[in-house]
Amino acid sequence: MAGSQKDKEPVNIVAQQAILVETILKEERYQKLFTNYSINPFKKMHTLTGKPNSFHDTAEGEEDSNFRSVIARANEVPTKKYLTPQTESQEYGWMTQPLIEFDRHDDRLHRPTRHCEITKYMDVVWALERSKTAN
Fold first, then answer.
1. Domain chopping of the chain, boundaries
2. pTM of the entire predicted model
3. Residue 85 burial by CB count (10 A; 0-12/13-18/19+): exposed, middle or buried?
4. What are the contacts of 69-77 at 24+ separation with CB within 8 A?
5. Which residues contact 123 (CB under 8 A, 6 or more apart)?
6. Which of the four pLDDT bands, split at 50, 70 and 90, describes residue 47?
7. Residues with Cβ < 8 Å from 90, sequence gap 6 or more?
């Protein structure tokens, strides 16, 4: 026990204070003061009617066009809001338009299912098996 107390170094208050000052300076350098407050457009909200005897609540034309545009933009699908996907998950299904036009008469791209006598027979057999297991 006596050896473990000798191994401990005394706390260096000056070094701890220097670390604290450096941390605060870094925080202040990257900190932004946010003063533009508005309602979160992604949160569902309930509109309340105004008070019946209040002139401010019954005045006509007090709708905020900027707020309306923010809400409309928040309700759009991501492909209309952004030019490119914002996350890795959005990359799947981002481009929904086909790359080439689909032509059913072109045998290179369209291979319809062809039935011969054996495949028609097996379709009937499997349909009978499914109907037996369903009952």
1. 2-96
2. 0.34
3. middle
4. 70/38, 70/41, 71/41, 73/41, 74/41, 74/42, 75/41
5. 115
6. low
7. 78
Q: What is the pLDDT of residues 75-108, one digit of tens each?
A: 888 889 889 999 999 888 888 888 888 888 888 8
Out of 10-24, 35-49, 100-114, give the one with best mean pLDDT.
Answer: 10-24
> Quick check: 121 and 127 in contact, CB under 8 A?
no
**CA-wise closest residue to 91 among 100, 82, 104, 99:** 82
What are the DSSP calls for 78-121, one per residue?
HHHH-SS-SSHHHHTTS--S-SS---TT-TTT-------HHHHH
Q: Is the distance from CB of 110 to CB of 103 less than 8 angstroms? A: yes
- Residue 131 pLDDT > 80: yes
- Which contiguous run of DSSP H or E holds residue 23? helix 13-30
